Description:
Strand content: 15-25%
Helix content: 25-40%
CATH superfamily of the largest domain: Alanine racemase
Bound molecules: pyridoxal-5'-phosphate
Domain Orn/DAP/Arg decarboxylase 2 N-terminal: 70-323
Region (Disordered): 1-35
Pfam families: Orn_Arg_deC_N
Keywords: Pyridoxal phosphate
CATH topology of the largest domain: TIM Barrel
Organism: Streptomyces marispadix
Number of domains: 2
Distance between the termini: 56 Å
Amino acid sequence: MHDFSSTADDTGKPGETGSTGAARETAGPGARGETLGARRDLAVRAAVEQGLVTGDGQPIAALLDIRAIREAAAALRTAFEGVAAPGRPVLHTFAVKAASLVPVLRLLDGEGIGCEVASPGELALARAAGVPAAHTVLDSPAKTVGELREALGLGIALNADNPEELARLDELITPGGPAPSPLGLRINPQIGEGSIGAMSTATATSKFGVALGDPGAREWVVRAYRERPWLTRLHSHVGSQGMPLKLMAQGALATYELAEEINSAVGRRQIDTLDLGGGLPVNFGSDEITPTFEEYARLLADTVPGLFDGRYGIVTEFGRSLLAKAGTVLARVEYAKSAGGRHIAVTHAGAQIAVRTVFTPEAWPLRVAAYDAQGAPKGGDTAHGAGGAGAVEQDVAGPCCFAGDLVARGRLLPRLEAGDYAALLDTGAYYFSNPFGYNSLPRPGIYGFTAGGDGVRFTTVREPQSLEEIVADSGGAHRDALREALRDA
Length: 489
Ligand SMILES: *Cc1c(COP(=O)(O)O)cnc(C)c1O
């Protein structure tokens, strides 16, 4: 059972647990206005009052705190500006898969953050958002020839994943000519596993990149660069949820050392940019932002001083850490029941919105906050979402038709009743933007909000999916196709 009662903190004060004295920040309060938690409470109440969630029709909605996204973007920029050589720009890209929403990409573009894309769909979203080609990086492990050609045609940087992909690039690039876009090779420094196997990209047998420690691999990589003067970047992906910062910095060090080795072997500074892929872990236990971008940038500078001495351009690819804290899923409690002595709140948020939490709950625990039917925190301002007085142990279930569809098990919460709302916190990345089409449940509407002196204002990021759209997405236009095929056979 995951009990966040000792760390959940909606007052914005640093949590009492988990603080080790290293650089830490709480989300807000900013120059004017409330903390992340206070803004969330205001937004939930306003979402109920303004009918974004309703008793009938719209039992679930997703809320995005626009200020929280901008604050995360600013923290990222500031952190790297603090360590990078003056005048040597760092290109931050956002891993689109973490929140594949055009308005989000557009907002980040305005903050100077480009896109890391890994499919034709993600590239289309980045282009729809107006993200310049020069701020876009393509990283998929399964790029087709068509995708490679398109990226080269657009001048979009890409990182080849393996020798076969490099051979395809050889075919597409004019020998002796300049490369149409910045090109790199992805290596796997094989530094080891984090606490979540599925998120660990740098194990000995990870599917990504050229495994650097394999027999002959390092020599092959050096030769690949020597033979291809247009290969000017080196890419690795070393971190994600569950990865210790120290291990990530070791991955960056291994990448830097290989670049130095290649440049000295070819006798010139052929590699001019290091793409340090992979994201920062997110604290799903409280509103505290930890680790911070600043902590990571400083650790990188300490571990790999040469990284920021001005000889290399730097690309980053953060996803989850830019968006997670900004998002809340708000779902109505339809029924409150009990089974075998266990209280169960049946809500409208389950596997369709929280796939990883439902299927691997130990790896992806979420905080749940309880609100009443008017959208007011249940159990008092500071206790909701935690085990305050009157809290009872309960399961928080979703609407999907399988028994394991639970977003929290045995959680101490104010008793959720029919008509209340359950909020899934820190769900701005990889939750509502990555729905799972189970039971033909609709994708919920997503609303950006600002909460200021003049109240809460919402703006639509994505409309809720309509039943007509579900039918259309489910072959509605081909209603008779199978019957007719049988008749014509
Ligand atoms: C997913 C991904 C990221 C971002 O990871 P997060 O954990 O969401 O920050 C960065 N780079 C690459 C290549 C990725 O595949």
